[in-house]
């Protein structure tokens, strides 16, 4: 089993920045990738970014150049730095870990971008 706990969400003005973190515990060996999804009100959950076990990163087109995903293997954490935030980035952000064919999800953290 894998447990995920997100932190770092909150309220930020348009153009501002936030950093989300996800602490991973439990059976952490053989993790293929770690990443982030988000779900805005009335919309389906969508991919934001991911990072593989060898450090390869992928981003949704809508966040390229503004968001940066990183991982700290020593601390078993994955982070998402979000810059130049827009109101349309308002959503619940979920951490995800893919391990041995199974997706594990965190409980989500709310990000609200509003003036």
Overview of the molecule:
The chain is built from no helices and eleven strands. It is mainly β and 115 residues long. The strands form two sheets. Strands 2, 4, 5, 6, 9, 10 and 11 form a seven-stranded mixed beta sheet that branches. Strands 1-3-8-7 form a four-stranded antiparallel beta sheet, with no helix packed on it. The protein is globular. It starts with a strand and ends with a strand.
Q: How do you describe this structure in short?
A:
The protein has no helices and eleven strands.
Rg computed from alpha carbons, rounded to a whole number of angstroms? 13 Å
The portion of residues forming beta strands comes to: over 45%
Distance between the termini: 40 Å
Shape: globular
Helical content stands at: under 10%
Tally of helical runs: 0
Category by helix and strand content: mainly beta
- The multimeric state of the shown protein is single chain
| Biggest sheet record | 7 strands, mixed
Strand element count? 11
Low-confidence stretches: none
Helix-strand sequence: EEEEEEEEEEE
Average pLDDT, rounded to a whole number, is 95
Task: Provide tags for this entry.
mainly beta, four-stranded antiparallel β-sheet, 0% helix, single chain, seven-stranded mixed β-sheet, 115 residues, globular, 58% strand, 11 strands
